Amino acid sequence: YNLVFSSESCTGCRGWHTRTPCKRGISTMSSVAVLTQESFNEHRSGLLPEKAKAAVAGTSGAEDEDSLPTYKDAFPPLPEKPLPEGVQETGNAWTTKIRPLKSSVITQVFHVPLEERKYKDMNQFGEGDQAKVCLDIMHKTGAHLELSMAKDQGLSIMVSGKHDAVMKARKEIVSRLQTQASATVAIPKEHHRFVIGKSGEKLQELELKTATKIQIPRPEDPSNLIKISGTKEGLEKAKHEILLISAEQDKRAVERMNIEKVYHPFITGAYNKVVGELMQETGARINVPPPSVNKTEIVITGEKEQVALAIAKIKKIYEEKKKNATTIAVEVKKSQHKYVIGPKGNTLQEILDRTGVSVEIPPLDSSSETVILRGEPDRLGQALTEVYAKANSYTVSSVSAPSWLHRFIIGKKGQNLAKITQQMPKVHIEFTEGEDKITLEGPTKDVQIVQGQIEAIVTDLISRMDYTEISVDPKFHRHLIGKGGANINRIKELHKVSVRIPPDNEKSNLIRIEGDPQGVQEAKKELLELASRMENERTKDMIIEQRFHRAIIGQKGEKVKEIRDKFPEVIINFPDPAQKSDIVQLRGPRTEVEKCTKFMQKMVAEMVENSFSVSVPIFKQFHKNIIGKGGANIKKIREETNTKIDLPAENSNSEMIIITGKKANCEAAKNRILAIQKELANITEVEVSIPSKLHNSLIGSKGRFVRSIMEECGGVHIHFPTEGSGIDAVTIRGTAEEVEKAKKQLLSLAEEKQIKSHTVELRAKPEYHKFLIGKGGGNIRKVRDSTGARIIFPTADDKDQELITVIGTEEAVAEAQKELEALIKSLDNVVEDFMIVDPKHHRFFVARRGQVLRDIADEYGGVIVSFPRTATQSDKVTLKGAKDCVEAAKKRMLEMIEDLDAQVTMECVIPQKFHRSIMGPKGSRIQQITKDHNVQIKFPDRDDQQADAPVQENGEANGEVKEPADPLVPKKCDVIVLSGRKERCEAAVEALKALVPVSVAVEVPFELHRYIIGQKGSGIRKMMDEFEVNIQVPAHELQSDIISITGLASHLDRAKEGLLERVKELQAEQEDRALRSFKLTITVEPKYHPKIIGRKGAIITQIRNQHEVNIQFPEKNDENQDQITITGYEQNAVAARNAIQAIVDELEEMISEDITLDSKVHARIIGARGKGIRKIMDEFKVDVRFPQSGAADPNLVTVTGRPEHVDEAIDHLLNLEEEYMADVVENEAKMAYMKPSGSTASSMEEPRGPSKGFVVREAPWATGNEKAPDMSSSEEFPSFGAPVTNARSSPWGPKRF
């Protein structure tokens, strides 16, 4: 249902709002009850006095015959004339004078009746799922929603916004807040596309208009049923619209009849029975607009004969009713109209079904209270009786109660109110915020009972409750609340009061305290003391570098929690990391803030001290030795020096190891790491004194100069002191020879810098650099030696790859510059030359995609070497490039040709089984020999003996006897072929033979083999990787002690020592295992086992960990249920046994006593999830057992423990029982007010005599033999929505269905 707000209409508000009364006026449609300001008070107060009396008189028996009302008094005669013109509703003068303003923003109100509400939890209005759904709708549609609760517990939703947004919100409200019904409508398949419309526009419009979901079957689906889901009213509208669309498109006859809306109920009949019968009889489709659609047109479709027949029948009904039906107008209070209408209009249908009379209710936006009854004259009396009976079936009353007591009456989560509403579900109880009264609405008798119960609760609460208000500056409110409400919750629990602190947006300084009078005063005193203390607080800002904030807070706030626990009265606020602020704010009492400041300053000082960092350059090849086996070395250094040590990643080129911690600890760790490097290699370290003012010039831009010296001197490490330290000592670390070389260069460079330093930059193409440097640095060394200048080429990491820097004296730099420029100029002078190369050697140069030619180009300034095509058989080779580069390349190629001409082929016989070992991982070893000796090595193909061996029978193959192979002739698969110069091939053969693995046998006890192999072979793999050998363990079935180690001779000794060392370790572990397997048993009665185990195994776990033993309790099916087995070292097992025995001795001293505690207080003593009883057991060191459900004595509680502890615990439990029983008695007393008294209940249960019915004097049935109608009969006076029993004769006249 929708109610449209417009700027010129204002007739009041139907419901009430949860916070403030509605200031808007509304103009509504027919489905929502709307009160004018004049009738609002009347709506509140219920029935008019005289009608209330009449209702009571009509439903209660009377002893005195004279006191009975006459039939005319109870049911006044109907007027004989039609409704006078004066009763007609007058139009609104305002609407004729003022044109409505059109606005882009519209407001509509949608009403969801109680029975159609999806969320019916009365105690969570404004919160819970319903509120979340509304927020989601607002976000999704952009419309603004306001909810209010109506007196009939329906929901009114006001939606404001653009027209499209309101329509979308309406659809969402119907689908998400209203229970959904569904229906189907069948129209011809060919009409479906007209319902969908162009691009689905018609369907969308229809869904928005009717607030339903319409599902049309797909074209391939043969079904012609359209499914509609939504509210009942929406279903009717949608069905009507779809049938109209179908009727318009139907090729059969379509007729439209305009019949006054007031006669539609007679055509449709009660529950659509008449129209259904008409459609069945005629075969035509009759579409009557539903009551909510203000249309007079009835559409009939079908075959012409069927349509004509249907029209005739409808006309007959219409004319008959128009001729015979008369109307009467009666006044029924506007507030009672909804009871006449009934849920979903069922009451109107009931009256129409019973009496054949149509009841016309004025629209809700009308102030008229006139109800018109239309029908046969002889049926109007019965219909009027039913209308008044329904209208007067409910009453409205109120109970005076201060508004601050309302929430106590409602109770926590509505518990108190729920008890009343469960007993009297038909009574609606309304609490209006800010008003000192409670409104009740419902059946008269039920309302009276509920009113008595609530009045009793109010009287009780007023006698024992009080409230007060205190004024506290709003800036202190959140401190009074505390973190997570800790402070305020503590005060509430301690004093058993309720404290309301206004939210920040209210800007109010009033805090309200409600509860027990004494508790209210105590809470007030404590809150005022807290506020006073806060006024004396001070705030201090500490400057702490942001990099330390995370460390102070700790992981998951653990460290800052410790500080807060130490200084609970101090609030510590850290800035948001995004703010990049160093200010940490402390707030609290002056002395506590000062103490906390000193503590945090000390903590920060320690962090600063521990954040010292130093970088140590260590040769990359020694990093793994620094780490040690399984990280043992680095872990030991970290623990002993208490430092953090970070190594660069394996794939990083960095050699720097970073140490962080206290300065002294960092230096100690640095020395230990350097000592490991020194021990591993012949590393020496010298210090050179160079004036600190020259350090920057020696290091160069981004370290270029010092890096070039380090690279030239074999990768030595040169360490300059920190800039600005004033220290002159420069440290050089590396092998003795390279260190000396680097020292000379540094001193020479420093001397040059001191005399006169001069720098020049040159540019040359990167491809020229290798040629300028020359093979092994020969070219550039000549320039350095002849001029004395230092020449630095860019590294691969430098951005400018063309820049060459020359450093030295002015004369030396000028001379070097001249030479280099001449070289570069000659390189830029491109020439083309030729040379003769025998075609048999061409393949060598162009093989492997021209790798040899690419190497020549890289080495000699990008020279391009072109060989003739294979088909030409030419021996002329072209070289193109810089003149010097071409000459050098030509010379190098001639050397290669000479090597090829002098090349010999040599064979090296090594058994094939060793070939893989010789090659090494990914052929690395063979590649190294090829590179070192400049030879080519070719391994033979593998020989598969099984595949090559011919099939033999009786020593013959193919009828011929095969001669045995000559043992002196090597197998083809064992021959490795080498090619190159003779001397180089001989050296390579020796290198290959040195790689042939040899084997050694080591005796290892068989039982240790599986430990050496390790889990899934991890142990033996680790040893093979570490010693670079192959270790072969004999098969298990051989039971052999011999393990074979195969590898290079140089590796065998180390591998053998490692294996024997592992054997010693395993034997030691075996001995230790034997000692650890000592077992002893202790006899302990099974009843003590749970106590020894402890809660969640806490006690037994502690004993296991403390004594390092395994303790095994007997299984359920074991014979010896009293035997506990302890396994471990003998002395540890004995100690664990003694610990268990001590527990048993203590348990044997314990006693058990039974006490009687009323079962009503058991749950209270146990507490939520057993917290209460656990606290008691921990405090008194006893065990308390409560009876299980169904026990013989439900009040029997057993307390077990030491005698003195048991007595104390029993006293405490009895005190708790006394305290809790007082609450139980009090609650039972309250319940007595909420339930009917025993006498009333018993009287209600007494068997009653036969009902006298509804008794009046001079009634029409008094003259006949019929008895008066029975008020207790559900047939005579049915409830709302109750099924109707079988029809029988009645004094009210025959029923019409």
Automatic annotation (TrEMBL):
It comes from Cyprinus carpio (Common carp). Residues 940-964, 1262-1297 are annotated as: Disordered. One of its GO terms (molecular function) is mRNA binding. This is Vigilin. GO terms for biological process: cholesterol metabolic process; lipid transport. SMART domains: KH. CDD domains: KH-I_Vigilin_rpt1, KH-I_Vigilin_rpt10, KH-I_Vigilin_rpt11, KH-I_Vigilin_rpt12, KH-I_Vigilin_rpt13, KH-I_Vigilin_rpt14, KH-I_Vigilin_rpt15, KH-I_Vigilin_rpt2. SUPFAM superfamilies: Eukaryotic type KH-domain (KH-domain type I). Appears to play a role in cell sterol metabolism. It may function to protect cells from over-accumulation of cholesterol. GO terms for cellular component: cytoplasm; high-density lipoprotein particle; nucleus. Transmembrane segments: none annotated. Gene3D superfamilies: K Homology domain, type 1. It is found in: Cytoplasm; Nucleus.
